[in-house]
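Quick note —
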Amino acid sequence: MVPNSVRQRIDHASLPLMTKLSRLPRLVPFLILTALLVGGVLIAGPAGFVLIALDAVFVAWVLYLSWPALSSSERIMRLAVLLVAVALAVVQLFPRS
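Predicted structure written out below.
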């Protein structure tokens, strides 16, 4: 099987940031993501979209990096979280009224 060079490059490029994140207390990344999500929901319009989109991009990045090690149920749950974040971002950018 030929190794996926794109995956290897992304893994290699992500290693320094993932190393820094792993040194933080577990609660810190969670609180940052929660603050971005809550801020994005409370701030209407494009600014709220940007905050939620940052949240979604981070979730997508971590999902991509962890995909090979996840079970099917873990993949489904994390994809659901990503889809909710993307849906929230779209609703913030294009509100009903």
